[in-house]
Design goal:
The chain is α+β, with helices and mostly antiparallel strands. It has 2 domains: 149 residues, no CATH class; 93 residues, no CATH class. Helix content is 24%, strand content 21%. A 4-stranded antiparallel sheet has the order 1-13-12-9, with no helix packed on it. Strand 12 and strand 13 form a beta hairpin. Helix 1 packs across helix 5. The longest helix has 20 residues. The two termini are 31 Å apart. The relative contact order is 0.13.
Length: 341
């Protein structure tokens, strides 16, 4: 189970666990014809030759098929794309005055670098109540492969019946070249699969050599304190009833999810015995001012929560950072020994 962050000391409801995938009944497969307006055509389901113990009923439709067949995807086929199609996933660089490779000072700078290389598809608006963003992300992965699909940036999104300003971005570290860009390496020239693989191999070698040359320790950089009074995250401060998580453009990604989630936030926690930690845990939005933090028993965040419970503590201050620089998010998603040793 996850842990719940709430101001109510008497609240004890556990976070429900939901499957990552589900199946829905359907009598036919559905394909989407990319015409304007979009049309939906029925076709026979393909024979299923999987293990009979894991094979779904003959009328079952998996999540990917359902979302790709949804009316939401049909509407998506008519979306307005800001970047021209040839620039969406071609991996071609174009000159711009900003910083082209990392390390980046902000997530905003990183997204600009991806856009410069044609690795971002910008969409004006999508209806996530119809799972259009989810469907589009799956379709791009089907088209370009898991490691070739571009990121998708949506400027305005509909969730729970409301249109909300974004931006919302998905798959921002999915492409082969993103690791190189993040760590300050120039991707290999060309847009072929082999050039992308070579970029990835060279980046891994660069990181491995850097650690090996330091006797197995990760490179350390000098501490650069930032004033809490003037930090960019303090530009807008909401407190008490003025803070409403439902006003932010966090989405419900899949039909089987129990609610909207903060999916890629870095969760900072601290314990007097275990020290400081930050990890990437799914955070379920359970109300305007209530979040369920889904850390697992083998994760440091969970261990810190359990330590506090053992000591009889009733409060656990945490901070969730959304849209932090890509290296920070990289580290929060990795298991690293204390001090980088």
């Amino acid at each position: 189970m996850g842990l719940i962050a709430t101001s109510d000391p008497n609240f004890t409801r556990p976070v429900p666990r939901w499957p990552w995938s589900a199946r829905w009944p359907s009598s036919a497969g559905i394909s989407i014809s990319p015409s304007t307006p979009a049309t939906v055509q029925e076709q026979p389901m393909a024979d299923n030759k999987q293990n009979p113990q894991t094979t779904p009923p003959p009328d079952a439709l998996d999540r990917r098929q359902l979302l790709s067949a949804a009316a939401g995807l049909a509407a998506t086929l008519g979306f307005s794309v800001v970047a021209p199609p040839e620039a969406r996933a071609a991996g071609k660089s174009r000159a711009w005055p900003g910083k082209d490779v990392g390390p980046f000072d902000s997530f905003r700078d990183y997204v600009k670098a991806l856009e410069d290389r044609g690795l971002v598809m910008r969409v004006k608006r999508l209806d996530q109540d119809q799972y259009e963003l989810t469907a589009l992300t799956y379709r791009l992965m089907d088209e370009f492969g898991w490691y070739g699909a571009p990121a998708v940036l949506v400027e305005e999104i509909k969730q729970d019946g409301r249109w909300m300003k974004g931006p919302v971005i998905t798959n921002h570290q999915g492409h082969w070249d993103t690791e190189a860009i993040i760590w300050g390496r120039e991707p290999a020239p060309g847009a072929s699969q082999e050039s992308h693989r070579e970029t990835y191999r060279q980046t891994i070698k660069f990181l491995h050599d850097g650690i090996e040359s330091r006797l197995g320790k990760t490179p350390m950089i000098p501490t650069n304190p930032v004033s809490t009074a003037t930090a960019p995250v303090k530009e807008v401060i909401l407190k008490g009833d003025d803070c409403n998580l439902l006003d932010f453009s966090f989405i419900k990604s899949n039909p089987a999810d129990s609610a909207r989630y903060i999916n890629t936030g870095s969760v900072f926690t601290e314990d007097k015995e275990l020290g400081m930690n930050f990890g990437t845990y799914r955070c379920e939005i359970q109300g305007p001012r209530q979040i369920g933090v889904n850390s697992e028993p083998n994760q440091t965040g969970w261990k810190m929560f359990m330590k506090k419970i053992e000591r009889g503590e009733t409060r656990c201050p945490i901070a969730i950072v959304v849209g932090n620089d890509p290296i920070g998010w990289f580290i929060s998603s990795s298991i690293i020994s204390k001090g980088g040793a």
